[in-house]
Amino acid sequence: MKISHRVTNINGGGSDGWDVFLKARGMIAEGVAVTELTIGEHDIRTAAPILQEMHRSAMGGHTGYAMVPGINTLRDTVAARVQARTGVPTTRDNVIITPGGQAALFAAHSVACDPGDTALYIDPYYATYPGTIRAVSAVPQSVPAHADNAFQPRAADIAQAAEQGAKSLLVNSPNNPTGVVYSRETLDGIAQVCKAHDLWLISDEVYDTQVWTGDHLSPRALPGMADRTLVVGSMSKSHAMTGSRCGWIVGPQDVIANLVNLATNTTYGVPGYIQDAANFALNQGPQVEAEVSEPFRRRREKAMAVLAKQNTISLVPAQGAMYLMLDIRATGLSGDDFANDLLDTHHIAVMPGESFGQAAAGHIRVAMTIDDDRFIAALETLCDFAAGLARK
């Protein structure tokens, strides 16, 4: 029997970008001690009060089918949170709860694109972006953001790509993998292109609580953008609830109504006890979010001090998110070769820039997701390794 092209082509016939990560996990399975600086998984776990609320809800019987758009209390809380942060009037009718940010990305592209439509995304990109677009039978097309512009995408580059008939544009700020926060100028340019070329804008804002310098600005708040922007959010990064799989889309009311139909025929919603826990977590206020993000802020400062003592590796402006993007081109190696050699020789696992697109070639992404002492020791070893390569 033949498997559908839609599924077999999700990775476009190439790698899914996780080769070094899988190699590291294979070494760990064989008993090798590997320092993992790969995926965006907190080294803390979901806070006990959130888990206690999840347990209370489950034991109280909220284990059956929950309302597909999401329980009203959580939708109201998300709407109030978004309105407070953006100034854009938002009600529960603008919100659908999804099984995490990844499901939200799939649903957003499903509602924005028909099969065969071109969907734009910025390179460097989170590894699942092109596969998600292919999974809805749309055609992914990357728009490079260049290292010489601090990985801020240029409106002219997006416009040139959009002229070929695109339907949507996916952006992510604070950005994974680069750690860059898009400037007001960048976002204004993106908004102008979307309006000029009638694009849906899908804005992945799952790192909005991890901003180290500057301010996070949701493009939904820009003039004329609320009716064409779909904002993806998640509990994963803000509250260390990665495994709970609870996210959302915020968008125009008619779009959300149609996404309810999609969810009814795909995920059929999110478990009620998880939604209750998410609602509880969000209502604990910004202090809890700050506590979750603080280790990454602290490690960023420590990392910048380490990097300032050497001259082989350059740091891409680390303005947000839990990652550092490091330019290792002075070593003469690609990101792939550097990451594999570092893993083989020092058992330190990082992600090659090429895992996130060709615009990040010659870079590596380092996740700040282990305790401070081990993180700094690994970064110092990485710097020494790079310096040795550059001297050859």
In short:
It catalyses: L-aspartate + 2-oxoglutarate = oxaloacetate + L-glutamate. By secondary structure, this protein is of the alpha/beta class.
CATH fold descriptor of the largest domain: Aspartate Aminotransferase, domain 2
- How big is the Rg? 21 Å
Number of distinct beta strands: 12
Identify low-pLDDT runs.
Answer: none
What is the end-to-end distance? 54 Å
β-strand percent reads 5-15%
Looking at the structure, what is the overall shape?
globular
CATH architecture of the largest domain: 3-Layer(aba) Sandwich
Instruction: Kindly state the percentage of residues in helix.
Output: 40-55%
* Oligomerization status of the protein chains: single chain
Give the ordered list of helices and strands: HHEHHEHEHEHEHEEEHHHEEHEEH
How many structurally independent domains?
Answer: 2
- In DSSP terms (H or I, runs of 4 or more residues), the helix count works out at 13
Averaged pLDDT = 97
| Structure classification | alpha/beta
CATH superfamily of the largest domain: Type I PLP-dependent aspartate aminotransferase-like (Major domain)
Q: Quickly name the level 1 CATH class of the largest domain.
A: Alpha Beta
Strand order of the largest sheet: 2-8-7-6-5-3-4
Summarize the biggest pleated sheet. 7 strands, mixed
Cofactor: pyridoxal 5'-phosphate
InterPro entries: Aminotransferase_I/II_large (IPR004839), AspAT/PAT-like (IPR050596), PyrdxlP-dep_Trfase (IPR015424), PyrdxlP-dep_Trfase_major (IPR015421), PyrdxlP-dep_Trfase_small (IPR015422)
Protein name: aspartate transaminase
EC number: 2.6.1.1
